[in-house]
């Protein structure tokens, strides 16, 4: 039987890509980033595709690519795009994996995400609304919650096991 993967989820700017690389290197295993897979499939950037085809079309591709990736995964570390858990197929596929939620404050998420070319990080209000909408969704699928480290206060992150 295929082994579970460690799957990093969380909002834009939570640090999923970086975190996934760190987990993978510590465990000596491979890492897959679902957004990169999607861009490979699309042959263009997510931002370009969003602008040309719209969000609904993007979500269909995202569900297909991430769903297949999670259904076939045998070990390893996977970073998912922030909106991927909105899909029921993806949530079903996540059930056999170990899902780690990288928590991030709204302020940090905005500061990081606005620097990049993310189509859903252009308008602060819409970004904040999305953040609030997604919070419980992320928590509902997570096995482990990893709080954001406050570097200023040097407060260590304490992982919380949400589902034994
Ligand atoms: C999105 C997050 C992005 C990317 C797309 C949509 C979202 O990935 O998939 O722009 O809906 O939250 P990151 O979470 O890696 O930024």
Automatic annotation (TrEMBL):
Transmembrane segments: none annotated. Mg(2+) binds at residue 17. Substrate binds at residues 35, 59, 82, 134. ATP binds at residues 13-18, 118, 151. It is found in: Cytoplasm. Catalyzes the specific phosphorylation of the 3-hydroxyl group of shikimic acid using ATP as a cosubstrate. Monomer. Belongs to the shikimate kinase family. This is Shikimate kinase. It comes from Patulibacter brassicae. The gene is aroB.
């Amino acid at each position: 039987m295929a082994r579970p993967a460690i799957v990093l989820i969380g909002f834009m700017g939570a640090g999923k890509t970086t975190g996934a690389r760190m987990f993978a290197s510590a465990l000596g295993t491979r890492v897959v980033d679902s957004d990169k897979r999607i861009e490979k499939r699309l042959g263009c950037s997510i931002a370009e595709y969003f602008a040309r085809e719209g969000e609904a079309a993007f979500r269909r591709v995202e569900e297909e690519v991430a769903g297949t990736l999670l259904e076939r995964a045998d070990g390893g570390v996977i970073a998912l795009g922030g909106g991927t858990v909105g899909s029921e197929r993806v949530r079903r596929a996540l059930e056999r994996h170990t899902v780690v939620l990288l928590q991030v404050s709204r302020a940090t998420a905005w500061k990081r995400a606005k620097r990049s070319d993310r189509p859903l990080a252009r308008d602060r209000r819409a970004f904040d609304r999305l953040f609030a909408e997604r919070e419980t969704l992320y928590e509902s699928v997570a096995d482990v919650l990893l709080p954001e480290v406050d570097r200023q206060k040097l407060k260590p992150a304490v992982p919380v096991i949400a589902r034994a």
